[in-house]
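Whether sequence alone determines local backbone shape is best considered at the level of individual chains. When preparing material for the folding task, we compiled for one chain both its residues and its backbone structure tokens. No coordinates are needed to read the tokens, only the vocabulary itself. For completeness, the protein is quoted in full, as a sequence line and a line of structure tokens:
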Amino acid sequence: MKILLIAPASGYWRRIGRRRLFNGKTFRFSMLPLLSVAELSPKDAEITLIDEQFQDIPDGHFDVVGITAMTALAPRAYELCAHFRERGIPVVMGGYHATLNPDEALEHADAVVTGPAYGAWPRVCEDIQAGTLQRRYRGKVSSNIPKTVPRHLLDKRQYVTAHATFATMGCRNACRFCSIAKFHESRFFTRPVADVVAEVAAFDSPFFMFVDDNLTQDRDYAMALFEGLAPLGKRWVTQASLTIGDDEPLLAAMQRAGCTGVFVGLETFNPDALASQQKAFNTPENYRAAVAAFHRHGMYVEAGVMVGFDHDTPAVFHETLKSLEQARIDAIQLAIVTPLPGTPLFESMKERIVDRDWEHYDYRHAVFTPWRMRRDELQHGADWLIRAFYSPWRIARRIPRWLSLPGGWRLWAYPLVLNLAYLGRVMRFGIRGSDPAGQWTYWRRTCSNAIQNLRNASRVRGSSSKSEYCERT
């Protein structure tokens, strides 16, 4: 079989890897889903793997095309579906968007794999060869998970690391905005510790990444994993819950195992907003202490932060920046609240969604009408916050903190490179914005409204009648 596997890209990210300055390399590290699909394919298959961030779609004939896509990439995925189906090549879609919206995906693709590819993709290949391709396939984690993936298919120069792996999948939490909870039905799975340790030991690099959604959710499993990793002398980063900040033995085990950084989902500093999203287990009053605990164990902290909850007012942006600095967060991944189709949040916000262009569901666009601010205030405020957090002088202020971490003289470059990469993205994409609650923004808006009112009054005086003016406006 000749199999083409595609990770689509759109907007600024399409072919961004060809640029010299900011080329997105720091944010390219996984491709693990398509590498897993490649490993699950027939052993004699000829596989071409394409990452549209730096590669073009090839010509030629293929027996099947597999495409994985998040919601923001669904429109581009659908374009690719049409391109190949017009040439008589069957297309199979998978990933988060197709899993949560299979009927829509089937309007564009010949078949859909919902859930993980394990247990499903081998059947897809068998049916392609037999000419009996079905419309729907369902994968399951309980099927055999490959112990290795064909990383030789990647151009390693284009990725911050080609050594990304996982030990666990899914998450037991049920946060309303999260597609991960829906994808895995709020379940949590683990790989055999021996398999993970053997895979990591074979990496020809001292640094790798765990792309797990919540590596430490099963504490006993995590402790066994860290014990197995410690002798390898590797360094790694992962995602974890901030709730482990008070678990000193677990943090110490992570440090011995080589963890140098964690991504944690803070989401917001407003406890009411957290409760509304079924994430009340996060306690903002404990954020600073938890971050300090990670720092004591030589780990920098990147936080996932969201703005636009129904409890947020225009003051949220300045308050969030202040809280992030007080908590000594090292980096942030800022998101505008985005009701992804297929999640409980989407169902509850249907009446307020004003933009259904999936390409805008990239967490950088305000696609709904907020309750306590205007939509443009949400957009401009989010842009202002990300630019302010990654201003050069704020980055410079963080360097002494990184140098003070245990092993800081060796590890400070990791968060610095991450901060500079985010700054590069801000500059490349021209992100500016303004703080809706800031004094300058307030006076500028006030003056603008006053000028507009004078213009309207002048038009009324110049109209033959007030009703004529009202009809025009």
Summary: The longest strand covers residues 259-267.
